[in-house]
Amino acid sequence: MHHRKKIIVLTGAGISAESGINTFRDAGGLWEGHDVMEVASIEGWHKNPELVLDFYNQRRKQLQYVSPNPAHFAIAHLEKFFEVIVVTQNVDNLHERAGSSNVMHLHGELLKVRSSGNPNLIYDWDEDLCLGDFCDEGHQLRPHIVWFGESVPMIPQAISLVQKADIFIIVGTSLQVYPASGLIDYVKPDTPIYLVDPKANEIKSHHRVHAFAEKAGIALPEIANQLIQNHA
Ligand code: OAD
Predict the structure, then answer these.
(1) What's the 2 CA to ligand 1 centre distance in angstroms?
(2) Using one digit for the tens of pLDDT, what is the confidence trace for 51-71?
(3) Fold for the domain defined by 1-21+68-107+151-232
(4) Nearest to 210 by CA among 177, 180, 170
(5) CB of 23 shorter than 6 A to ligand 1
(6) Superfamily of domain 24-65+109-145
(7) Domain boundaries, the chain
(8) Is the pLDDT of residue 30 over 80?
(9) pLDDT digits (tens, 9 = 90+) for 36-56
(10) Identical fold at 1-21+68-107+151-232 and 24-65+109-145?
């Protein structure tokens, strides 16, 4: 069998928009009615842990009422023809539920929690998390989310994946949050880059990209078919 091409897909909140999960920056700086810094920063956690826990409890619960959309499924389908790795900024589980088997969550996962005293103690979690829920060492548990003000431990791994990409696809991210936004700088010069976002033409980039100014659920199935015909 010939060598399979490696596709890296970088996704952001926009890929889950058609599944009914709000993006961060489309609603005037409010995320589900909250200032992002209140619920998604380490300062916010220290200031009002109860509010933060409640916020993520709602997000975790919401996973039960949303489903993957055609964009998630198209990416999963590519695995039949390519080596595909999804690098997502999203904390939902819609890529996995669509069938993607190789998903790196740069910003953490709603269905995991970790010790606030020992970052290596990470647990699967599918219910509400409350003050008084402790890790095995007696520290308060917190959402397993990378907040503003925290480093992104998986970024070196993501960089080395992007460096090896034969095809790079970016979907539904405003590319405003560093360091994920810098990943595009690591693609090989001859690697084609596809950018799918209704605002694709406003997302300024010095790279030569194939821009698709469309919703992910429309564009991804078409792009996947094209790739399968031309590159598989
Ligand atoms: P943003 O909210 O910044 O950007 C979402 C992008 O999705 C925008 O460019 C929209 O135009 C686009 N979009 C909207 N609907 C779409 C659709 N149907 N199909 C395709 N694209 C669509 O979200 P992110 O770039 O993901 O971090 O934000 C990055 C990080 O900032 C998040 O991971 C989060 C946030 O703070 C944490 O919570 C740690």
Answers:
(1) 36
(2) 999 999 999 999 999 999 999
(3) Rossmann fold (3.40.50)
(4) 170
(5) yes
(6) SIR2/SIRT2 'Small Domain' (3.30.1600.10)
(7) 1-21+68-107+151-232, 24-65+109-145
(8) no
(9) 899 999 999 999 999 999 999
(10) no
Does residue 231 carry a catalytic annotation?
A: no
Q: Percent of the chain having pLDDT more than 70? A: 96
222 CA distance to ligand 1 middle (Å): 21
